[in-house]
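Contributing new records

If you add data, match the layout below exactly. Sequence lines come first and carry their own label; structure lines follow with theirs. Keep one chain per record. Anything else will be rejected by the validation script.
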Amino acid sequence: MKSEHLHSLLTHSGSTPLSESTMAFEIIYPLFSILTNANRISNGNLKKLRRLDLRPPISDEIVNEWLELQSSLYGQGRPHNYQYVIRMTNSGAEHYFEKDVFPLFYNNF
């Protein structure tokens, strides 16, 4: 009985087995998948945003100094004039947007 229940948890729509990572994600973080979605912004609108690109060749020292002053997540949260900030992490590029640009995004679902 337990193995049948486990098998039903490991299958999607009753037929296709889920990968181990997908299963773990859906079991451990069931609300996360509900709260996230993909949004898009047109290239034209993206190009109009006041952007700061902190990816290399900008040094980590300069990036960290900027974050310590301007970032509300990592620093003092001093106001800045950028609507779009890009920085590199070990996981890849992170893209931050000011809340005033969210109306420019659309959901394609």
